[in-house]
Amino acid sequence: MTNRKDDHIKYALKYEAPYNSFDDLELVQTSLPRYDLSEIDLSTHFAGQDWDFPFYINAMTGGSKKAGAINRKLAEVAARTGILMVTGSYSAALKNDYPDSYDFRSDFPALKLAANIGLDKSIDLGQQTVTALQPLFLQVHVNLMQELLMPEGERHFRAWKQHLKDYAQQIEVPLVLKEVGFGMDVKTIRYAKELGLETFDLSGRGGTSFAYIENSRAGKRSYLNDWGQTTVQTLLSAQELRDNTELLASGGVRHPLDIIKCLVLGAKAVGLSRTMLQLVENHSADTIVAIVNGWKEDLRLIMCALGCRTLSELKQVDYILHGKLAQTKFVKQSK
Ligand code: FNR
After folding, report:
1. How many other CB atoms are found less than 10 A from the CB of residue 132?
2. Of 9, 43, 203, 305, which is most buried, counting CB atoms within 10 Å of its CB?
3. What is the DSSP track for 263-277?
4. Mean pLDDT, the chain, whole residue set
C-alpha cells in the first residue's frame, strides 16, 4: 500500500487547477510615483508577532521518508531567507508514523516555525504538538470535504465545535484556524471569532485541490473536484471583517503579483504550498533561496508601482474584477 502522505504529494504536483481567481483581478497602477524603491516596507504583524515578510511556506507534509526530505529542504530555505515555515499536520507523528520527518529544527536554529493539526484532533493532541515542536503559533485546519472524500477519513464531526472551543481556551500559543483549499466561509469565521479566535487562513480554491487528491486516490466522484470557493472570492466575502480580524490568504498563489493581490484585499500575509512543493521537487536549495529572495525584491517593485510604502497602504489600491469574479452574485441566505 502506498503511503497516504506520499499520495498527497504526488497528486498535488499532478493537479493543475482549471481556474485561478487571481487571473480575474487586476490592480490599478499609479503613474505618478510616491516613494523611492528603498522606502518600501514589507513587514507585517499577525498571530502575536512581527514578521519581516508577508508570505510564508504553508502547511504541507510529514509522516513519510519523502515528506521528511521535503520538510528538511523547506526548512533550509525558510531559515536562509527568514520566511516562516508551517509544518504539515503533526497527526502522523502523534501516531508514530515517521516522527523524525518533523525533526529538523535543531539543524536550523534561525528557523521561524509554526505547526499544524486538524480540528478532528482533541486539545490534548494539540498540546502534545505544541510541546513537541514549540511553534510560534498553531494552525488548526478544517478540511471537512477532504475527510468526507477520503476513504479512511473522519465520519464523526459533532465534536469539532467543542474542539474549537477547547483550543480557543486552552492552547498556550497563538491560534490560527485554517482551511485547506476549499475557502473558509464567513459564518465559520464569525463563529470562531465569538470563541475568541483572531487569525484565519482562508485558503481558497485555485491551487491544490484536496477533492481532486482524494477522488484520485479513491477513483471516484471526480465531479466534486472543484468543490469550494476561490481564494479571491473568499477574500471578497470577508471584506467586512478585514479591519478587525487577522486574515491570512492562501490557495493558488503562484508568484509575488498574486501575493500583492491578497494584500490589497486585506490579507496580513499569504501562504504558498504547491508553488513551494514544485520548487522543492525541481531545484536545489541554493536556487530556491535565490528565487525566494527575488520574490522579496519583486514585492517591493510592485508596491512601488502601486504607490504604496506599507501593507496598510496597499489596502487603498483600486482594482478591477473581470470574468467569473465580475459576474459573481453572492446570494446570502439568512440564518
Ligand atoms: C497540504 N495542505 C495542508 N494543510 C493543512 O492544514 N495541513 C496539512 O497537513 C496539509 N497537507 C498538505 C499536503 C500537501 C502535499 C499540499 C500541497 C497541501 C494544504 C495547504 O496548506 C493549502 O491550504 C492548500 O494546499 C492550498 O494552497 P496551494 O497549495 O494552492 O498553495
Report:
1. 15
2. 203
3. HHTT-SEEEESHHHH
4. 97
pLDDT band at 328 (very low <50, low <70, confident <90, very high): confident
The position carrying cell 487586476 is 26
Residues with CB under 6 A from ligand 1: 8-9, 12, 58-61, 88-89, 116, 139, 141, 178, 180-181, 203, 207-208, 250-253, 272-275, 277
Q: What is the pLDDT of residue 334?
A: 65
Tens digits of residue pLDDT in 157-207: 999 999 999 999 999 999 999 999 999 999 999 999 999 999 999 999 999
pLDDT interval class at 30 (50, 70, 90): very high
* pLDDT for position 1: 58
Compute the distance from residue 90 Cα to the ligand 1 centre, in Å.
13
CA of 91 to the centre of ligand 1 (A): 14
133: left (phi over 0), alpha (psi -120 to 50) or beta: alpha
Specify the DSSP class assigned to residue 311.
H
pLDDT at 335: 59
User: Whole-angstrom Cα distance, residue 295 to residue 25?
Assistant: 20
- Ligand 1 atom, smallest distance to 58 CA: 21
Which of 16, 180, 226, 261, when mutated, tests ligand 1's pocket best, judged by the most ligand atoms within 8 Å of its CB? Answer: 180
The C-alpha atoms of residue 166 and residue 140 are separated, in whole angstroms, by 12
User: Which atom of ligand 1 is nearest to 86's Cα?
Assistant: 21
All three cell numbers of 198: 483572531
pLDDT at residue 87 is higher than 80: yes
150: which residues sit within 8 A by CB, 6+ positions away? 214, 217, 218
HSE at residue 221, side-chain half, CA atoms within 13 A, is: 18
